[in-house]
Design goal:
Layout (H helix, E strand, L loop, with lengths): L2 H13 L9 H9 L3 E5 L9 E9 L5 E9 L8 H11 L6 E6 L2 H9 L3 E2 L8 H8 L26 E5 L2
Parallel strand pairs: 3-4
Antiparallel strand pairs: 1-2, 2-3, 4-6, 5-6
Length: 169
């Protein structure tokens, strides 16, 4: 296995922000080699390259649903629009008819997702949300933001709070 996947895995784990079960070098690389992830890496000709940005489509229990996840841009590349680019490329990797979702607490990822046609989802907007999450196998990871914050009162997505977004069609 190439060292670049180990370095990426270590960088992702160090942030403490990503779904830990996905952060092994083998799983990260398997998404890329399956044509379901986008990377940006350094351009060294000799020696190991380093992955500086990554975004992947992760499978769910529902064959037509994929999670856009593990969106990462290294410190040295932040602020240059790369997050928008890799998320857009990752979305294009989805098969025709695929449905996508993401769960994030990063405001920049939320904005990029909205530009790509994703919308924040709550049980108010999608009454069958819990059934879908059970079928997809993600019910244990659902953010509390899918529920009202008080009777009849719904929050709005903001940085630091985990939100569910999805894109259908």
């Amino acid at each position: 296995m190439q060292r670049k996947w180990e370095v990426l895995s270590e960088a992702l784990r160090a942030t403490g922000k990503y779904y830990p079960e996905r952060l092994t070098p083998r799983l990260l690389s398997s998404r890329y080699y399956a044509g379901r992830a986008v990377i940006r890496e350094t351009t060294e000709v000799i020696g190991n390259r380093t992955i500086q940005a990554y975004a992947a489509l992760w499978p769910t229990n529902e064959p037509k649903w994929f999670e856009l996840g593990t969106v990462y841009v290294g410190d040295s590349l932040r602020g240059r629009g790369l997050r928008n680019d890799i998320m857009s490329e990752a979305v294009r990797l989805a098969s025709a008819g695929a449905k996508l979702f993401l769960i994030t607490d990063v405001e920049g990822v939320m904005h990029s997702a909205e530009k790509l046609g994703f919308a924040a989802v709550t049980t108010q907007k999608q009454p069958n949300l819990l059934r879908w999450a059970s079928w997809a196998g993600v019910v244990c990871r659902l953010p509390g933001s899918i529920y009202p914050i008080a009777p009849g009162v719904w929050g709005t997505p903001k940085s630091g709070e985990r939100w569910l977004y999805w894109k259908v069609g």
